[in-house]
From TrEMBL:
Protein name according to UniProt: Glutamate ABC transporter substrate-binding protein
Origin: domain of life: Bacteria
Database matches in InterPro entries: Bact_solute-bind_prot3, Solute-binding_3/MltF_N
Sequence similarity: Belongs to the bacterial solute-binding protein 3 family.
Coiled-coil intervals, chain numbering: none
Solute-binding protein family 3/N-terminal domain boundaries: 58-283
SMART domains: PBPb (SM00062)
Leader peptide range in chain numbering: 1-22
Keywords tagged on the record: Signal, Transport
A Pfam entry, by short name: SBP_bac_3
Length: 297
């Protein structure tokens, strides 16, 4: 996610060439989330990352542990969220069941570092694909496209997107110094922009009627909606683009192609949609489609 962001702690298209040829058997193992297909008969080209991971029987995945609905460590110690389920899908295509995944806490500022140092095999952590990061690591995907959105009260029918803000005279809240606070200035008068230091204060202001909308990335808003007890909803009309990719070691084209194929298969067999519905889909009214995948290499 964007660098200038106060984090709220509460709260995959045509198939690409694949170096693995699918084997025969597959298991269905829940692993504490959605049922995941584990391809026990997969075979991979010797010397590839896939071959190495399959022989190890485990994969290390960098994730966030404080991002509700995407990457969150529950009170029971189990990982949950859409990023987590996406990682399980990829691991399953490697023949690795969920219980053999090693989850590694990976905050935003360390994502490139852990890949470069070989501490993880991939990072699935609300990881926006951009040119600066591509100088250090490679990306598979994207598997999800986030974007700035609006959160309003559940009974609000007047605010239907950013273009409706100025005509309705709505006051909008965001966070000081954040990119969303700058982006929203195109749609509201300066006098109707309210800024706080954290998004929880924006949620309080919406609850008490001091503002009529809160704006930031939809993944943060989903967490706030979840915490609102039904008081808030998301407009679900994103007006910026943030493609989330799976980070891997720089230049590992075959692993990128493998992951992209796994994501494509998941979109085709419904496991991508099920992963969403079991996590962020509990709050979001819409199930996203797998975005167009970027070329590997």
């Amino acid at each position: 996610m964007r660098g200038k962001r106060v984090r709220l702690v509460v709260a995959v298209a045509a198939a690409l060439a694949l170096t693995a040829c699918g084997g025969g058997g597959g298991n269905q193992l829940s692993g504490g989330g959605t049922e995941v297909k584990v391809d026990t008969g997969a075979h991979f080209e010797p010397g590839t990352t896939m071959d190495s991971l399959q022989k190890q029987g485990t994969v290390r995945v960098g994730v966030k542990i404080d991002q509700p609905l995407f990457g969150l460590k529950g009170l029971d110690g189990q990982m949950q969220g859409f990023d987590v389920e996406t990682a399980k899908i990829v691991a399953g295509r490697l023949g690795i069941p969920p219980e053999r995944i090693q989850w590694v806490e990976t905050p935003s500022k360390t994502r490139e570092e852990v890949l470069e140092q070989g501490k993880v095999d991939m990072v699935v952590a609300t990881y926006t694909i951009n040119d600066e990061r591509k100088k250090r690591i490679s990306f598979a995907g994207p598997y999800y496209e986030a974007g700035q959105d609006l959160m309003v009260k559940s009974d609000d029918t007047r605010i239907t997107g950013p273009q409706s803000l100025r005509p309705t005279g709505a006051k909008v809240c965001s966070v000081i110094g954040s990119t969303p606070a700058e982006q929203i200035r195109k749609y509201v008068d300066e006098s109707n922009l309210v800024l706080f230091d954290v998004y929880s204060k924006c949620a309080d202001a919406l609850r008490t009627g001091q503002v009529q909308a809160v704006t930031t990335d939809n993944v943060i808003l989903l967490g706030l909606v979840q915490q609102s007890g039904g008081q808030f909803k998301m407009v679900e009309k994103p007006f910026t683009r943030e493609p989330y990719g799976i980070g891997i070691r720089k230049g590992d084209v075959k692993f990128c192609e493998f992951i992209d194929h796994a994501l494509t298969q998941a979109a085709q067999d419904g496991s991508y949609a099920r992963a969403w519905q079991a996590t962020a889909g509990k709050v979001s009214r819409q199930t996203p489609q797998l975005p167009k995948l970027d070329p590997c290499g």
